[in-house]
Description:
By secondary structure, the chain is of the alpha/beta class. 42% of the residues lie in helices and 16% in strands. Among the domains are: 12-135, N-utilizing Substance Protein B Homolog, Chain A, CATH 1.10.940; 255-435, Vaccinia Virus protein VP39 (Rossmann fold, 3-Layer(aba) Sandwich). The strands form 3 sheets. The protein has a 7-stranded mixed β-sheet, with helices on both faces. Strands 2-5-1-6 form a 4-stranded antiparallel β-sheet, covered by helices on one side. A two-stranded antiparallel sheet has the order 3-4. Helix 1 crosses helix 3 (44-56), helix 3 crosses helix 5 (75-94) and helix 4 (58-68) packs across helix 5 (75-94). The longest helix has 20 residues, at 75-94. The termini are far apart. The protein binds S-adenosylmethionine.
Amino acid sequence: MTDKKTPHSLPLSEAISIAAQAIGEVMSGRSLTEVLDQLEPHERPIVQSLSFDALRKWVRSHELIKQFVPKSPPPEVDHLLSVAIALFLNENADGKGYAAHTIVDQAVSACANYDKTMYAKGLVNAVLRKVGLIVQPPEGEARFPPDPIPMFVPPWWRANLKRNYSKAWQSILFSQAKRAPLILRVNQKQYSREQYQALLNEVGIASSPIEEVAGVKLGSALLLSNPVPVSELPGFYSGAVSVQDAGAQLAATLLNPGEGNRVLDACAAPGGKTAHILELADCEMVALELDGERLGKIGGNLDRLRLHSDRVRVIRGDASKASWWDGRLFDKILLDAPCSASGIVARHPDIPFLRREADIKSLQQKQRGILEQAWKMLKPDGLMLYVTCSVFPEEGEEQASWFAGEHSNAVRLGAPGQILPTDVSDGFYYALFKKNGP
Ligand SMILES: C[S@@+](CC[C@H](N)C(=O)[O-])C[C@H]1O[C@@H](n2cnc3c(N)ncnc32)[C@H](O)[C@@H]1O
């Protein structure tokens, strides 16, 4: 077995140490995205990969830690072990990766990088050698069976999935424990999907079109056979293409914007769906966002994609209130509501560690407040698309049924409803309403 050839400028031992500390931050309630954003550019890819994998393999790595360290180690040592064990488990899963001796050596060196793990070199060495024997057995011996459900979720989360998806709950967690593929959305203002695929071919990047998700045809989605940094994508910095999950590409497609439509994107940051709408039609767009920091990302995305115009306004405001509104009704409203994000765990494996059960009730209240206010801003015969990236029915079908029950002028049109995560799509919920009369 050879060591991984992926070029990176950070020694593995340093990356292990930083990833372990990043996991410590998640355990104390910080989002991993926020932690990773603070790293140097050369540190980020490898630390992200290590910390994501450690969170995805959490259940199995902790079974092993328990097996070999009967008295729980201090958190800093536990996190370092979980990062290193995930490296073994990935080797087990895909047959590629670091040699066992490299993982052990680098993890032991990583102990020296942080005063809280410095003393634990002997323990880490002993545990990882034993783990190596179980996970990477000598030639000819049976491999340890894969963990039945590698993805950690808290008990209330698991109970929710079991209650609502008695047959599918395990496969949901399995698909969320896999590394998410890189999916692109071709900017149709610049290239057709076929044209862009040809450009990718020219630079040796293999891709295939994703024709549909949940029965909805997609015109711009491309699945890369192997992920590459965005800097290697032709025309990325001049807006040829964006990274966006295929399930998320349903939003603009279902809203079906027409030329000149007045459109509200009520919860817009970082602007992925705002941009997709503008790629499909020259609309008069209001992109609204409550969070000032996230608001800036919308402008950045529209700049890169060359979608700014005097018909596009990016506004900071609360979609559950009317204080920001000029009183002019909208033809179409996209309501991509704040939610648990339980559908996008494959791309954000820290989410199950951060959510609390009580969050669901308070998110439901927020979603209802925004639904109520947005409906008042919609023209008669206008369309409103309600979206969440959640697999919990409390944020999906329950909300759509409640809304339809409250509004006799809300007609439900065809939309996929709950989409469970698959190999090319995260989990989403989509409901489409038409306003029948004022
Ligand atoms: C699911 S994200 C939107 C993702 C975005 N549509 C995209 O595709 O890039 C939900 C967004 O709603 C924002 N938000 C939360 N409460 C809001 C409110 N009351 N009014 C407006 N935006 C809100 C959050 O800050 C977050 O950026």
